[in-house]
Amino acid sequence: MDASVLVLNASYEVINICDARRAIKMLVKGIASAEREYEREIHSAHAAFKIPSVIRLFRYVHIPHRTVKFSRKNILLRDRYTCQYCGKQFPPAYLTLDHVEPTSRGGTTSWDNVVTACKKCNTQKANRTPMEARMQTIRKEYKAPHIVHFLHMSKYSAAYHKEWQEFLFAR
Ligand SMILES: [Zn+2]
After folding, report:
1. CA of 84 relative to ligand 1 center, distance in Å
2. Are residues 49 and 99 part of one domain?
3. What is the DSSP letter of 93?
4. pTM of the model
5. What is the pLDDT of residues 150-167, one digit of tens each?
6. Residue 132's closest CA among 110, 102, 106, 103?
7. Which of the ends of the chain has fewer CB neighbours closer than 10 A, N or C?
8. How many domains does the chain have?
């Protein structure tokens, strides 16, 4: 019952992650349907259920837009503690934040311009643009993580559930 379940709005938009107990309650109450299931089953006194992996609400619920707080901790988490120049993973103490376009050149302190860099790469890049330093970031684009990616990364392991991906990357 500790399995995590992706919750979709009626529109298929990802809205949350909950545990299997709560998801099954929603199925039993008839307010959601199972879109994907795990192989495992659980047995109650009267019935056996396959544990849902993805559920979808029958009725659309309005969810206010939620954003992930911009912070050092959250940037490291988004980048999975991986230097975005050399591609190696480090413990947090060895990592710094780098402005891809330096602030002196108008680079902003935002999700799309701040990345994780190891101390060595940051020192090497110094106050230069990637072009000047001849150091490209390992990804083309950076942005704020989707709130649910983030919930998942912070609450659970970094490995995504395979069957969630089509929903998480749908938009
Ligand atoms: Zn590095």
Report:
1. 7
2. no
3. G
4. 0.61
5. 666 655 543 456 667 666
6. 102
7. C
8. 2
> Are both 19 and 43 inside the same structural domain?
yes
Give 89-117 pLDDT, tens digit per residue: 999 999 999 999 999 999 999 999 999 99
Report the separation in Å between the CA atom of 96 and the middle of ligand 1, taken as the mean of its atom positions.
Answer: 10
Give the model confidence (pLDDT) of 44-83 as tens digits.
778 777 889 999 999 999 877 677 889 998 899 889 899 9
Amino acid at 28: V
Please name the residues in contact with 63: beta carbons below 8 A apart, sequence gap of 6 or more.
9, 13, 15
Distance 138 CA to ligand 1 centre (A): 10
Q: Is residue 141 part of a domain?
A: no
What whole-number distance in Å separates Cα of residue 104 and Cα of residue 150? 30
Q: Are residues 111 and 84 in the same domain?
A: yes
Residue 42 lies in a domain: yes
Q: How far is the CA of 82 from the centre of ligand 1 (A)?
A: 8
If you measure from the C-alpha of residue 136 to the centroid of ligand 1, how many angstroms do you get, rounded to a whole number?
A: 11
| Residue 89 Cα to ligand 1 middle (Å) | 8
Residues 14 and 55 in one domain: yes
